[in-house]
Specification:
With 148 residues, the protein is an alpha+beta fold. It has one domain. The chain is built from 3 helices and 3 strands, in the order αααβββ. A hairpin with a 2-residue loop joins strand 1 and strand 2. Helix 2 runs antiparallel to helix 3. The longest helix has 46 residues. The chain is rod-shaped, with a radius of gyration of 30 Å.
């Protein structure tokens, strides 16, 4: 009976000591901050990759439109699409031939008799479900006037 009273007396001291103990506070704060930090970090990386891919597709579309206008190697639509796929692969972006659309002799951005190229590329990102404003498709288009 005496030991039970002794435990009851010391219990409030242990509880108050536990409430004042700050040894685990850092890990609790980290548990709250880490998910937000990681989403921001990976979101920034994904935004950079998306911007880089869009810039690459813009350059590939322009180069393909120019090739259509000045180079006989891009005479057929199959050769034009193959040029775009190879040019994108040189930058490390995988583009399918079905994603490349070419048009010859069209009016584009005020230029009559121009060659136009449009590339529609699907964005592969694990963040699309968490960040709803990420684009699902990147669209790059370019025109180049027919020379000669």
């Amino acid at each position: 009976m005496r030991t039970e009273n002794h435990r009851l007396i010391r219990l409030p001291g242990r509880v108050s000591g536990l409430a004042r103990d700050a040894r685990g506070a850092t890990i609790v704060e980290f548990a709250f901050v880490a998910p937000v930090f990681l989403v921001l970090l990976f979101g920034l990386i994904q935004a950079g990759l998306t911007y880089w891919t869009k810039s690459t597709l813009d350059e590939v579309a322009y180069s393909t439109a120019r090739c259509m206008s000045v180079d006989s190697a891009c005479a057929s639509s199959d050769a034009q699409r193959a040029f775009a796929v190879a040019r994108a692969a040189a930058y490390g972006v995988t583009v399918a031939t079905s994603e490349v659309s070419v048009a010859s002799g069209t009016t584009c951005k005020g230029d009559t008799n121009a060659n136009a190229v449009t590339i529609t590329h699907a964005v592969a990102s694990p963040l699309k479900r968490m960040v709803p404003f990420l684009p699902y498709d990147l669209v790059a288009s370019a025109c180049f006037p027919v020379v000669g």
